[in-house]
Design brief:
about 80 residues, mainly alpha
Length: about 80
C-alpha cells in the first residue's frame, strides 16, 4: 500500500499543490471524478496513456486514507 501511495505527489509547482499522479498534471480528484462517472481503468488509460493501472489504484488508496480521520470539524469563514 505504501508503494502505491508513493505515486501520489504534492508539489506546490504542479496543479497549485493539489495531490497529483507522479508529479504529472493529473490531479487525484480528476481520476476519482472519472471513476465515479463510470469510466473503467482501461478507458482512463486509453484517454491518458501516461497513466498506469497502479496510478489509478494509488488514487483510490489515497482517497481511502483521507476518509479514515477521527473527526471532521466545520470551519466557519
Amino acid at each position: 500500500m505504501d508503494n502505491l501511495l508513493s505515486r501520489i505527489t504534492i508539489n506546490s509547482n504542479v496543479c497549485h499543490g493539489k495531490p497529483t499522479i507522479r508529479d504529472m498534471r493529473y490531479p487525484v480528484e480528476m481520476i476519482l471524478d472519472l471513476l465515479s462517472s463510470g469510466m473503467t481503468f482501461q478507458e482512463i488509460i486509453n484517454d491518458f496513456p501516461a497513466i498506469e493501472p497502479d496510478d489509478i489504484k494509488a488514487c483510490l488508496t489515497y482517497a481511502s486514507k483521507l476518509t479514515k480521520v477521527k473527526s471532521i470539524h466545520k470551519v466557519v469563514a
